[in-house]
Design goal:
The protein has 149 residues and is mainly α. The protein has six helices and no strands. The protein has helices at 2-33, 52-68, 72-91, 98-101, 104-119, 126-143. Helix 1 (2-33) runs antiparallel to helix 2 (52-68). The N and C termini lie far apart (59 Å).
């Protein structure tokens, strides 16, 4: 049983990454474009306003990159940091616990994205394709011998 679960781990991680990335990107799209209910009950965030607009851009771009599995670790690191900022600067001053201050989503996204920083993209990601291509090139380059003139 453990062997089967271990062999499925990259695929479960890949699906986790896709779901977290899509949900994160949806938050950014709602804030920037007013889709899916919009920002704070409707509407959009004015361009350039601190920190909301910048957070929404990070959510949209970072979530899209995480969902695709492209630059997963870097995108997840920046996105996780933005959620830590959101929690401690926006939610935590209201109350200590996320249930009291409305910061559950920020806390969950922060920790889920931080997990992806350490695990990588798993299966089904574009990162994996580039890694496979890079390994093939390294093998052929190491087999070459320099030619003396």
């Amino acid at each position: 049983m453990t062997g089967r679960l271990n062999s499925a781990q990259p695929y479960a991680l890949g699906l986790f990454r896709i779901v977290v990335g899509l949900l994160f990107a949806c938050h950014g799209a709602a804030s920037l474009f007013g889709v899916l209910g919009g920002a704070m009950g409707g509407g959009t965030i004015d361009a350039g306003t601190w920190p909301g607009w910048y957070a929404a851009v990070i959510q949209l771009v970072g979530g899209g990159l995480v969902a695709l599995g492209l630059g997963t670790r870097a995108a997840a690191f920046i996105s996780s940091g933005s959620m830590a900022y959101a929690y401690f600067k926006v939610h935590q001053p209201e109350a200590l616990w996320p249930m009291e201050n409305g910061g559950e989503a920020s806390a969950m996204f922060c920790w889920a994205l931080l997990l992806l920083v350490f695990t990588g993209s798993g299966a089904l990601g574009i990162d994996r394709l580039f890694a496979a291509r890079g390994e093939g090139k390294d093998d052929t380059a190491s087999e070459r011998t320099p030619v003396a003139a």
